[in-house]
Amino acid sequence: MENIYDVLTTCPLFRGMNYAMIEDVLGSDDISIASFGAGEVIAKKDMAYSGLMVVLSGSVEGIFTYPTGQKAAIETLSPGELIAPAFLFGGYNRLPVDVVAARDTRIMTLHRGLLFELMQEHTLILSNFIDIISNRAGVWQKRIYALSYKTLREKLASYLLDHTQNGSPEVPVPDIKEIADYFSATRSALVTVVEGLEKKHIVEVEGDVIKVINRSALKDILK
To answer: What is the pTM of this model?
Structure first.
């Protein structure tokens, strides 16, 4: 098996475990590793999800396709992160979106039976998994709340408030189209909204970063 344990020490499923501990518990044939090229589909929407996928290298995107055919990147995952852990168990264990490699990527699949055994044998892994599911529920609750706003200006205000705080007011936007896709909007429409906020001195755009300079004004947009 490839030397994957340095990456897995950053994985939330193995939080609190060191390199040697992870290597010891994963000494099993129930793990598989596969490589995918940029743009390649790793798993399709509604596919039965029988093993927990972990990003080892590269990055992946969860792509949602609207009835109109428009596609939106719902989430981007980096090395050490888990793909759709909440859909591994339960009566409906099917993926809610297409999973696509954003660039050359390696994926480890931890098969469901082995994961269940690990959770029975190691309470730390069980506790970590429960925390992961709970945290994911909180994230999706925030997203549903943000998407409930009607205007793109309201959605962006909610997004910026959720992704910044007083001590860390900046949001990196290496590709503003990613945020536009998140709201199912065009890049030009989002740029227009950002420019409007900038003219009102609510945000500043500095290269590939949006900096919030007036949080109270953003909150007023949502009233």
So the answer is: 0.67
